[in-house]
Amino acid sequence: MAYMRADVLRADEQALSGPAAMAVFPSEAGTPRAAREHVRAVLLRGDPPMPETKMDDVCLIVSELVTNAYRYGGEPDDSVMVVVLPTANCVRVEVHDTRRKRPRLRTDSDERARGRGLHIVAALAARWDVVERPFGKAVWAEVARGD
C-alpha cells in the first residue's frame, strides 16, 4: 500500500522517478541508523544528485523522526516505516508509526537531555507536519535541494 499521494505535494512539485522508496524497520534501538543508511542510499541513486550538506540535513531529520517513532510511537514489537520521495526541488521523508498521539515541540531546557528532536527538524526542514493514518500517524518533512 503506497502512503505517498500526489496531492500531498505542492502543486509545483512532481516525483522524479516513479513511486516513493519505502522501507519497514523493526522498532528497536538500531533503527535510526538503518533508516539513515536507507535514505542515504536512495538519495545517492537519485538524479539530480543531492548536495552533501542537504543529504546530511535529510539524514539528521530521518534520525530524529525515527528515534521519536521508536521511543514514543508504538510498542516494542511494532514496526516503523520510512518513505523517501525525491522531487526536483526537494526531498520529502515520512516516518510512519502505530501511535496516533501527535508529537509536540517542547520548550527549550538546559536541564533535559531529550526533547530537542522536533526543534532540529523545524530548523532544517523547509516544512514539516503530522498526518493521521488509519493505524497511526506519519510525521513528514521536506528539505529543499538548493540553498
Summarize the structure.
The chain has 147 residues and is α+β, with helices and mostly antiparallel strands.
Overall pLDDT level: 83
Net shape: globular
Spans of 5+ residues with little confidence (pLDDT < 50)? Answer: 1-12
- Number of helical elements: 3
Task: Describe this protein's structure.
The structure is a single chain. The protein has 147 residues and is of the alpha+beta class. Helices cover 29% and strands 26% of the residues. A five-stranded antiparallel beta sheet has the order 1-2-3-5-4, with helices on one face. Helix 1 runs antiparallel to helix 2 and helix 2 runs antiparallel to helix 3. The longest helix has 21 residues. The radius of gyration is 15 Å and the shape is globular. The N and C termini lie far apart (34 Å). The N terminus is likely disordered.
Topology:
Elements: E1 21-26, H1 31-44, H2 52-72, E2 79-86, E3 90-97, H3 117-124, E4 127-133, E5 136-144
Antiparallel strand pairs: 1-2, 2-3, 3-5, 4-5
Helix pairs in contact: 1-2, 2-3
List keywords for this structure.
disordered N terminus, 5-stranded antiparallel beta sheet, about 150 residues, 5 strands, single chain, alpha+beta
